[in-house]
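haha ok so turns out i had the wrong file open the whole time. this is the CORRECT one, sorry everyone. sequence first:
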Amino acid sequence: MVGMLTSEEAARRLGVKLTTLYAYVSRGLLVAQRSGDRRSLFEVDDVEALARRRRSNERGEARLVTIATSVTEIRSEGHRYRGEPAVQLAERVSFEHVAELLWGVDSGPWEAVPIGPPPMSALADRLRWAVVMSGGADPLRSDLREAAVGRAARTIVATMVATLDDGAAADHPVAVADRLATVLSSVRGPAVSDAVRAALVLLADHELAVSTLAVRTAASTRSDPYDAVLAGLGTASGPLHAGASRAAHLMLVDTERHGAAAALDDALRWQGHAPGFGHLLYEADPRFGVLWSFVQRLGDPERLEVVDSVLSLATERGLPRPNVDLALAALGYVAGMDVEAGSVLFKVARVAGWVAHYLEELSERPLRYRVRAVYVTRG
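then structure:
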């Protein structure tokens, strides 16, 4: 045939292995035709066009491969913030300490913007409202110096927490964990505050989760920190990310009413998996064990027994190991919190990590995230 190349010739022209050539065919980048002896042949014009596209895209594709970070490292035994094991930090330090460790900026006041009662009641909407109003009250929100971003981050978190309390300003400085425990839980006492503190520390960051990537993308366009956090909140709100603990919380409520077998079976039937079990990066999520140990100190034997019944049945039936979403759901369930409380704790905590990655991304060249699409015709 005139104007045709064999597989070997096409691969040589493109400078790739045969396996890569066949991958191009499967992705629709090249069309293979069969010769009389059943060999694959490729039109010269198609191969040349692909070679030109590869040359023009080579620089852009190379810079999308990895993202170097010194914020968080994930290991099988648990994640580390700036080299310090998060599971150990959760035992002894405040959320504020961890946030400022991640940001690498000087300490400062955690003061809320006085915005008054929010115009909505949903907890997730209140968090977004707090960020919008915090940004609106900042006359220099486009100041991207580290100290200014750190100040904005402390304001965002403090205003989020105040908004959950109908916008009431604290008369004196109150730790983020203590105030969240008071606002979200119907149970009082230091054990609840300590469990909330541990949850915030454990959830402050987890490397390049999808919401963190959204924040870094916003940072690459040099969006201000308020808009970048909003990008993170929007991405995190789905039921497969920050909202994952809600389904696990509802499963625990269902367990209390109908038993572990019925609750787990319903979850498997309608969701296709057991919420709060299994993790993409861990065989056993180290964060679960740490946070669960704090939940067990809350002193509600009946509700703790409900959680234990789910854990026992899951182990007996060989389900994946429990993850931090189940521990977060257990905290909310045992401490008498709303089913949305786990998502709230996750989002407030993750502001710490988002801002750390935001600051790190500002040191990179702007607009480095540009994914190329392969156009296909849908029938």
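The chain has two domains: 4-62, 71-379.
again sry for the mixup
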